[in-house]
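Thread amino acids onto this structure.
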């Protein structure tokens, strides 16, 4: 079960990183959107950080489960 959750979170992180790359390209291509896209990338980075924290929590739980058994 945890493997599926971890995989889903990792996939979402990869998608969000791709979104950041796309926004950087769009900002380069459309300078008038630069500030908006920069703000959007900051929000995406916060989401990525939250997902990474969730992955850390899952790893801690898995470690505790294996150390108890």
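Threaded sequence (69 positions):
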């Amino acid at each position: 079960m945890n493997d599926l959750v971890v995989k889903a979170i990792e996939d979402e992180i990869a998608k969000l990183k791709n979104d950041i790359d796309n926004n950087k390209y769009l900002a380069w291509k459309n300078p008038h959107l630069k500030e908006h896209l920069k703000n959007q990338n900051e929000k995406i980075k916060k989401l990525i950080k939250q997902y990474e924290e969730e992955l850390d929590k899952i790893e801690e739980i898995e470690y505790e489960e294996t150390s108890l058994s």
